[in-house]
Design brief:
Layout (H helix, E strand, L loop, with lengths): L1 E9 L3 H4 L11 E5 L8 H11 L2 E7 L3 E2 L2 H13 L4 E3 L9 H13 L8 E4 H6 L12 H8 L12 E2 L8
Parallel strand pairs: 1-2, 1-3
Antiparallel strand pairs: 3-6, 4-7, 5-6
Length: 170
C-alpha cells in the first residue's frame, strides 16, 4: 500500500458503467470501477475492491463524476498525512435547482453525504468500522454512521465535476 496513492472508485453496475472511460492510473492515482453484476453482491465486491486497492485513501464517486484539480491536490495532501480521516465533497454550485437545495438541507441537517457528493476515507478507518455496511437508497448513510462513531469528518472538499445528472448506480 502506498500512502501517497489515492484510489478513486466509481460506483455503478456493469450496465451503468460499460461505456464510461476512466482516466489512466499513475503513481499518485489509481482509478477503479465497481461494475458489479447484481445488487446482492455489491457490498462484498466493494469490500474486496477496497482491500485489493493500492491506495491508502479511498474516494467513492458517483457515475460520471470526478474530483476537480483542487480537490485532487487536497486528497493527495490528506493521503500523505496518513491519519484516519473521512469526509465528502461540496455540492456543485452550477446545479442549483429545488431538488438539489433539498439535498443540501438534508445533508447539512443529517450530516450524511448524498451519493452526488461522493465520499473519501482512509482504508484503515474503513476496515476498522467493518466496511461499507448496507447500501440502500442512501448509499453513504450506513458508512457515515460507522465513521461518526470513530471520528468527525473533514470539512467538505471542492465540488466534484459532474458530467451527467443521473446518479443512479444501478
Amino acid at each position: 500500500m502506498n500512502q501517497e496513492l489515492v484510489t478513486y472508485i466509481v460506483l455503478g453496475s456493469y450496465e451503468r458503467l460499460k461505456n464510461l472511460k476512466l482516466p489512466s492510473s499513475n503513481k499518485f492515482e489509481e482509478y477503479l470501477s465497481t461494475r458489479f453484476s447484481d445488487k446482492s453482491s455489491l457490498e462484498k465486491d466493494l469490500d474486496e475492491l477496497i482491500a485489493n486497492s493500492k491506495g491508502g485513501l479511498i474516494v467513492l464517486l458517483p457515475p460520471s463524476s470526478f474530483p476537480s484539480v483542487n480537490a485532487k491536490k487536497a486528497l493527495k495532501k490528506i493521503s500523505m498525512i496518513d491519519l484516519s480521516t473521512w469526509g465528502w465533497f461540496k455540492f456543485n454550485k452550477n446545479n442549483n435547482d429545488v431538488i438539489q437545495n433539498l439535498k443540501k438541507i438534508s445533508a447539512t441537517i443529517r450530516s450524511i453525504p448524498d451519493i452526488e457528493q461522493g465520499i473519501f476515507f482512509t482504508k484503515r478507518l474503513y476496515f476498522s468500522v467493518g466496511g461499507i455496511g448496507k447500501l440502500g437508497k442512501s448509499p453513504f448513510k450506513e458508512i457515515s454512521k460507522r465513521f461518526y462513531s470513530r471520528i468527525d469528518p473533514q470539512n467538505p472538499l471542492p465540488a466534484l465535476i459532474i458530467r451527467t445528472k443521473n446518479f443512479n448506480i444501478f
